[in-house]
Each structure stands twice: as C-alpha cells, then as structure tokens.
Amino acid sequence: MRSEVLYIIIGMTLVTYFTRFGALALFRFTGVPIWLNRWLKYVPVAILTSLIVPLLLSPKGYLDISLYNDYLIAGIAAAFVAYKSRNIIATLGLGMSVMFVLKLL
Amino acid sequence: MLLSNLLSGKNELAEEVWVALRECTPVVLGVVPFGITCGIMGLTAKMSGIETILMSVFVFAGASQFIGITMLSAGITGWGILMLTTLLVNLRHLIMGSSLAPYMVRLPFPLQAFLAFFLTDEAYALTISRIHKTRYSVPYQLTVSIVLYLVWVLATITGVVLGSYISDPLTWGLDFAMPATFLVLLIPLLADRISLIVFAIAAVVSVIAALYLPGKWYIIIACLIASLIGGLLEGDSEHAQ
C-alpha cells in the first residue's frame, strides 16, 4: 500500500463524511428553520428527477431524444410500469428486459 | 420518539427490517454492476487490489470513487485537487442531509453520526420514500444503509478478483437498473400540481446543466432551483387560502 494512495483515501473519506454529516451537525442544536423546511419539502422530487432524467436523455454525454437512445426507450417503458404497478421488481424486470432486447438489436 | 420506536415491540422492528430488505433488494441489484466496475477500474488505474477495496470500505461514494480513480489513472495525484473534486461531487449529500435533518436531529448524536456515514443517493431515496409512505423509521434506514454498504464492498472485491476475466458490466446496459429503481420511488411523489412543476423544472435544468457543467453539478443546481421554486409556490398557495 503506497502512502500517497493512503492519504488520498483518508482525505476522500473525511471530505465525503463532512458532506453527509455537515447538515445534521449544523441543525443539531438549532433545529431546521421553517423557511428551509418549506424549501426542503420538494427536495426529494427535485433530486430524484435530476438523478434520473439526464441519465435517460443524455446517456452518452449529448442530448439524444431519438429511437436510437436505448436508455430513453427503456426509461419510458419503466416509467409506465412504475406508474401502473408502483412495484419496484416489476419495473426493474420489464425495464431491464427492454434494455437487454434493445442492446441485442 | 426513538425510544418509543425501539420499545414498541419486536414485531414492529422485525417488520421494518423485513420491509427494508424487500424494498432495497432491487436497488442493491442496481449497485452491484457499479461496484464490480469500480473494482475493475481500480486495477486498470494501476491501484493495487487492496487499495481499491479499502477505498470502497472507507469512502463509500460511487461517483467520487470513479472520478478519483480516473484522475489517479490520468496521473493527477495532487491531494488538494482530488479533495476539492470529491467535495464538489459530494455536495449533493449536504442537501440530502438537510432534507433528512428534521427527522434525524431527534436521534441520539452517535446514531446520527453513524447513519450519516452511509448516506448515499440510494439510501436517501429509499429512506425518504419510506417517510412519504408511512413515517421516518430508524430500523428501516439502518437496514438499507448496511445492506447497501456490504454489497458495495463485496461487489468491489468481486470486481478486483474477477477484474481480468470479465468485461465491464456497465457496457451491458446494467447501469439502467439505477434510474429504473429511482423511477418507482419518484412517481408516487408526483401526486400534486406543485410536485409536477418541480419535476418539470428539475428535468429541464438538470439536462441542460448536465450537458454544459462538469461533474455532478447538474444535480446540485437542478435540485436547488427546482426545490426553491416548489417552496415558493407552496408559500403562495398557503397565503391564498
């Protein structure tokens, strides 16, 4: 184990932990302010959307709204199943199947 | 709050753990190809197997590990630049931490500090959707966190061990498992007008930002703008009533 890599791993560990614990440590004594609470209400929708949509619309780093974009097609299929079933296993199963077939084509 | 949660009987505890295991299984399956890829990437970046595995054990952050390993393999070994990159890539966790803070600040300090280590995108998504469905649950978050952690480490080890024998699993389209599982968590949240507006804004801003900004900035920018507008709309409709 090289010490250079060890220092990098230790540093990344501390920085990552800071981002995960920072907000909790900050609000521990004050509680979460009301104005922030209102703002935070829509964070789940906003963050899930921004995690998902770019992966589907620009999987290769450029905008690709076409039938050749496997991620978009499989994503639309998965969204439909997710809406109808609300079931993770059904959504994943069908989404991955569509993805697999598209990759084979 | 916590005590009543813990003391309200073994059955409820077992139930929460069971629900958590059931709900996190598909998400966990989505994590496996990323962990394997992480192991393979570490080797191709001339890191030793043990270095690659220890990075997963301690850092436990997929995106920053990928970027860190890529920078190392490109010969960028400056400590400062690697830390700054890690910070920027992980800033989104500050927002997730704030979002869970109203529930988690009531917990004992050591438990908060412990749970915070495991606050990944996946653990956040599962925990917050559990809150929306029923209520905040420590056993649920704990179960999901630890399963995701163990699978991430084991998948990295698998990648390191099998690295030279298998091709990168992400080229098979297995990386689609992650957005697919997040879709199931997102769609039930889109139940009212403001949520749909927030969704539309986040979608447009994140795609544009992903095309023009480096790293994970698109998540932070889109999340801040869309959730802020959601909060303002919420405030307006309260005044109107």
Walk me through this protein's architecture.
Chain A is an all-alpha fold and 105 residues long. Chain A has two domains: 1-33; 42-105, no CATH class. Chain A contains five helices and no strands. Chain A has helices spanning 3-30, 34-40, 43-57, 70-85, 88-104. In chain A, helix 4 packs antiparallel against helix 5 (88-104). Chain A is extended. Chain B is an all-alpha fold. Chain B has helices spanning 2-7, 10-44, 49-58, 62-73, 79-90, 92-104, 109-117, 121-133, 138-162, 177-186, 193-212, 217-240. The radius of gyration of chain B is 19 Å and the shape is globular. The two termini of chain B are 32 Å apart. At the A-B interface, helix 1, helix 2, helix 3, helix 4 and helix 5 of A face helix 2, helix 3, helix 4, helix 5 and helix 6 of B. Chain A: It holds the Pfam family AzlD. Chain A: This is Branched-chain amino acid transport protein.
Task: Please provide a brief summary of the model.
Chain A is mostly helical and 105 residues long.
How many domains of chain B?
2
Largest interface: A-B, 73 and 95 residues
Percent of residues in helices of chain A comes to over 70%
Briefly note the structural class of the backbone of chain A: mainly alpha
Shape type of chain B: globular
- Rg from Cα of chain B: 19 Å
Give the overall average pLDDT of chain A.
89
Largest sheet of chain B: none
Total helix count of chain A?
5
H/E topology pattern of chain A: HHHHH
Helix content of chain B: over 70%
Beta content of chain A: under 5%
Q: What is the total number of structural domains of chain A?
A: 2
User: What is the chain-wise order of helices and strands of chain B?
Assistant: HHHHHHHHHHHH
Distance N terminus to C terminus of chain A? Answer: 45 Å
What's the overall average pLDDT of chain B, rounded?
Answer: 88
Poorly predicted sequence stretches spanning 5 or more consecutive residues of chain A = none
Subcellular location (chain B): Cell membrane
Main location (chain B): membrane
Pfam families (chain B): AzlC
Protein name (chain B): 4-azaleucine resistance probable transporter AzlC
